[in-house]
From TrEMBL:
Pfam families in the record: DUF1993
InterPro entries: DinB/YfiT-like, DUF1993
Native source organism of the sequence: Coniochaeta pulveracea
Superkingdom of source: Eukaryota
PANTHER family (UniProt xref): BLL2446 PROTEIN, DUF1993 DOMAIN-CONTAINING PROTEIN
Name of this protein: DUF1993 domain-containing protein
């Protein structure tokens, strides 16, 4: 039985999540109230959409930097429009797509790395714990919160707007442009 690599479990999931976020933000950009969305919040004591997108991006950069040793450089958190947030997601996606499985070098899931976890905390933890215990939960929390903010603001989003990049990665035949949901409706859903 083949084992999953850190690349398979981290980078590919982050790529699909960024693709979903780009799609969701682009759909939101056509809404009449789009200009107000970057500062929108689910609740007054929660951080706005712009922050949700920035932190999702930061989680991707953390894996690239700490696990793969590729320094993405400093990025300012100064996006004020949906177009700027989309551009940040596209920049993050390009960074993730530039990573190759072999970039991990001799690191394994048990290799200890030092990473910032939280605003002021530095921790030494395994690659496995960084990816599964910190990065992916934070990434998906912030992507989901961005989705929820936009849904609350009236953007006509559905579950498949979020899931399509994930499902389509294993369900769409090479060269076809079918969406996974359409394939499920047609009864063509299977693992083979």
């Amino acid at each position: 039985m083949a084992t999953l690599s850190v690349y398979d479990t981290a980078i590919t999931q982050l790529i699909h999540g960024e693709q979903a976020l780009i799609s969701i933000l682009k759909k939101a950009s056509t809404h009449a109230d789009a200009a107000s969305f970057p500062s929108a919040r689910l609740y007054e004591d929660m951080l706005p959409l712009s922050f949700q997108v920035q932190i999702a991006s930061d989680m991707s950069k953390k894996v690239v930097r700490e696990v793969y040793g590729i320094d993405p450089g400093a990025w300012e958190d100064n996006e004020k429009t949906l177009e700027e947030l989309i551009a940040r997601c596209e920049k993050t996606l390009a960074l993730l797509q530039s990573v190759k499985p072999e970039d991990i070098g001799d690191k394994t899931a048990d290799t200890k790395v030092t990473a910032k976890v939280g605003r002021d905390k530095i921790a030494s933890l395994s690659v496995r714990n960084l990816v599964f215990g910190f990065v992916l939960p934070n990434f998906f929390f912030h992507v989901t919160t961005a989705y929820d903010i936009l849904r609350m603001k009236g953007v006509p989003l559905g579950k498949m707007d979020y899931l399509n990049p994930f499902i389509a990665s294993f369900s769409r035949p090479e060269g076809k442009k079918w969406y996974a949901y359409e394939r499920m409706k047609m009864g063509a859903w299977n693992e083979s």
